[in-house]
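Sequence in, structure out.
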Amino acid sequence: MGQHDAAFNPVSFAVWYEFAAGMNARLAQAIKSAIQTEPRLGDDTLARLYNEYVIQDDQVATQRISGELQHMMAGIMASASRTGDRAGVFGEQLSSLSAALEANDPSVMPHMVMATLAGTAQMKSSTQELQQQVMTSRLEIGRLQVDLLRARDEAVLDPLTRVLNRRGFDAQLASLLKQPLVPESPHCLIMLDIDHFKKVNDTHGHVMGDRVIQALGDVLRSCVSDKAHAVARYGGEEFAILLPHCTLDYSMKLADVVRQRTKGMKIRDRRTQAVVLTVSVSGGVAAMRQGDDAQDLIRRADAALYKAKQAGRDCVTCA
């Protein structure tokens, strides 16, 4: 932080903490790019980085963690300052003792030796205090990192299904669009929708509807094992899977695996274990084309999903 011009405030602490902890790859890349044109980042740049890459997380949690980090850093700075002051005094004592030794003045030697011994003890105590402060702070940084990661997860996860929410989906798609497009393996998007979901709610109630959505989330997580792929609840009973650098053929096969596993899913009465209902999904798949933006890709995947619905549901089509 000292290498830049931005003030030491909660916003700066939040940005630089995430950068130093290596927990926000998009922010790290943005900072490296910004430094190319602005070697000493100022308040405006830090505020922009904070708004674009940090504030999307839980703002209350981020502010709390930033405040705790600022308090912790203030403690380390105070300990370092005290150690520095004592080091200066100790240095003067050593210089005085050295001068006395050169002058070979026995009358001042006992006093000088005693003062130097006392200074040595104080310096040792101050150094130990600083070391303890640093060790404690390292543990605290670890706890804050866990807190911040948890806050980030909660901010972008759908609480019912534990897959990405719409906010998380939008962020993943924006990141995907920045990756280079390879014609042989373009980025693909699968859109899935539960067939006749309104009938499920009307017949069995919204609690059962939530169980169906939750179960589909489990199916999607079991089907999508590649960490580079992202599963999201797009909205209501509609889900999405983002597949970077995948062929359309692979994406179609994956969508059909999801369709088949969903069809085999049985929702049971928790009291009697009797099967209450089964559901199916329809899927639409689209591959990114040169010049596409987010809306282009979503629009084509949605159009493919509509085709699947028109074809009788419980199938997958591509656009």
